[in-house]
Amino acid sequence: MRLLFSVAVLASVAVSRTASAQSTQVAANDIGQAYFEFQVDKPVLQRPGNPHAQYPDEMRARGRVGDVTVQYVVDTTGRVDMNTIEIIKSTDPTFTSAVKSVLPEMRFFPAETAGHRVRQMVQQSFRFAL
After folding, report:
1. Of all helices (H) and strands (E), which one includes residue 67?
2. Average pLDDT by stretches of 10, the chain with 130 residues
3. What is the pLDDT of residue 10?
4. d(Cα 36, Cα 73) in Å, to the nearest integer?
5. 66-83 burial by CB neighbour count: b if 16+ within 10 A, else e?
6. Predicted model pTM
7. In this structure, are residues 127 and 92 in contact, taking their beta carbons and an 8 Å threshold?
8. Given phi > 0 = left and psi -120 to 50 = alpha, else beta, which region is 88?
9. In the chain, pLDDT over 70 holds for what percent of residues?
10. Quick one: which of 14, 43, 61, 91 has the most CB atoms within 10 Å?
């Protein structure tokens, strides 16, 4: 992470020697870094009407309940960057599949810092209960 930030600083200095710390952070983000919620001015928010993960029929029939915690990056367009998905915790692979299938359909208001949209790391829990 420090190497990524250093490259961004050099690029920012080449463009403008008077770049502020905030614009340096935005430049770093443009080359792939994702911010954490505490690092942004406006964090990611889910858009109304997002689809929910479908409860797998086989798990419902067996009376199984479970949880999935997933981490991913929301990009500057408000979509999940599918290359960044990481399952933190899951009680069953069937529930994990249900979560992975809904993520591409979800939409968000992207995070902002210094007036610019930025990528943000998000951690979300899904609960499957009868």
Report:
1. strand 66-74
2. 32 34 46 88 97 96 97 98 97 98 98 97 97
3. 29
4. 9
5. bebbbebbbbbebbbbee
6. 0.75
7. no
8. alpha
9. 75
10. 43
DSSP symbol at 107: B
What pLDDT was estimated at residue 104?
A: 98
- Six token digits for residue 113: 């810092």
Domains of the chain with bracketed CATH: 1-33 (no CATH), 35-128 (3.30.2420.10)
Cα–Cα distance measured from residue 88 to residue 120, given in angstroms and rounded to the nearest whole number = 17
Q: Residue 95 has which token pair?
A: 């529930």
Rounded to whole angstroms, how far apart are CA atoms 92 and 67? 8
Q: State the alpha helices, DSSP H only, in 31-105.
A: 57-62, 93-102
107 C-beta neighbours (distance < 10 Å), count: 16
126 vs 111: CA distance, rounded Å: 21
What is the distance between the alpha carbons of residues 99 and 1, in angstroms, rounded to a whole number?
A: 29
Check residue 127 and give its pLDDT: 97
- Say which amino acid occupies 10: L
And the tokens for 11?
């690029």
